[in-house]
Design goal:
Keywords: Lyase, Metal-binding, Zinc. The chain is mostly beta strands. 5% of the residues lie in helices and 41% in strands. Strand 7 and strand 8 form a beta hairpin.
Length: 134
């Protein structure tokens, strides 16, 4: 079983997962673009359990389908490290960049492709959805 640790920029907030990701995806929605300051948000879903160390500040956003997304970010440096979703009880979603691992698996899906910047090229084999296929 693989153990991975993701952390914020300053190292104060960390999450440890003890499994391979269930999946890796990219979101191009405008809310994720604003939240990350990037043109997309890569995220990996992991099965429970997970361990968090450090303090986090929480930001809750309601998605298009009405689901609550609970983002945990570092109150010191502001980095979003992970989030949970109100209607998903058995998975945690971790920002891929927080692993600082260039060998991390590539995304399998891309959501909100209707908001993808035209110069962003998806990796070969990535399945793109115009919106979230929930």
């Amino acid at each position: 079983m693989a153990t991975r640790t993701a952390s914020c920029s300053c190292g104060q907030l960390q999450i440890e997962v003890a499994a391979e990701p269930n999946g890796v995806g990219i979101c191009h929605c405008l809310a994720c673009q604003r939240r990350t300051g990037s043109v997309f948000a890569p995220v990996a879903g992991f099965p429970l359990p997970y361990t968090v160390s450090g303090r986090s500040t929480v930001y809750v956003r309601t998605g298009d389908a009405g689901c609550g997304f609970v983002y945990h970010f570092c109150p010191v440096c502001g980095t979003t490290v992970f989030h949970t979703e109100d209607d998903v009880d058995d998975e945690v979603f971790v920002a891929v960049g927080a692993f600082a691992d260039p060998a991390f698996p590539p995304p399998q899906i891309s959501v909100y492709d209707c908001r993808r910047h035209p110069w962003v090229q998806l990796p070969s084999g990535t399945v793109a959805f115009e919106r979230d296929p929930e």
